[in-house]
């Protein structure tokens, strides 16, 4: 694993743990209505965050296909399959308390949180498939991440980070990753 990813994992452990503990997904989401509300919260967080990330740096010049890694379309797919009206989703308030993304280092630190969440999503997918019937084809696309390719995608992300980490400031990346976890915690637990 690249040095930067190891550092980000260690340096954001407290924020990550706090988010997981406070979110308490498996006790909090016990029916499809609660699950849909959870997906709406993720949608209204990811939508503005991914827009900020898209404009934060020239991802192509860094060698990362950011557009292919967006999660908002997955959330939209899930919500529509669960009966949401896209116009109604557009009317929902969006998270405004987002991390500062004024450098490539900030952007990569934030992207670390988004890409890393797909690993945890594998456990969440199994649980919600079993308890709620949410599958990748019906309401569970977001948590299923890249499906069977999630681990290989994470490895590819790690290799990409290794290829650019000498261009990045570790402190800035860590600051953004911590801020991303805090944004998630505040928005999802509001």
| Category by helix and strand content | mainly alpha
Mean pLDDT: 96
User: Beta-strand level of the residues, as a percent range?
Assistant: under 5%
Tally of helical runs: 11
How many strands in all? 0
CATH homologous superfamily caption: Heme oxygenase-like
Order of helices and strands: HHHHHHHHHHH
The CATH topology is given as Heme Oxygenase, Chain A
- Low-pLDDT segments, ≥5 res: none
When the domains are counted, the total is 1
Give the helix proportion (percent range): over 70%
Query: Distance between termini?
Result: 34 Å
- Global Rg: 16 Å
CATH class: Mainly Alpha
- Main sheet? none
Could you characterize the architecture of this molecule?
With 190 residues, this protein is mainly alpha-helical. The protein has a single domain, classed as Heme oxygenase-like (Heme Oxygenase, Chain A, Up-down Bundle). It has 11 helices and no strands. The protein has helices at residues 3-11, 13-23, 25-28, 32-56, 59-62, 72-81, 86-91, 104-132, 141-144, 150-164, 170-188. Helix 1 (3-11) packs across helix 11 and helix 4 (32-56) packs antiparallel against helix 6 (72-81). The longest helix has 29 residues, at 104-132. The model has no long low-confidence stretch (mean pLDDT 96).
Name its key features.
190 residues, mainly alpha, 72% helix
Summarize the structure.
With 190 residues, this protein is an all-alpha fold.
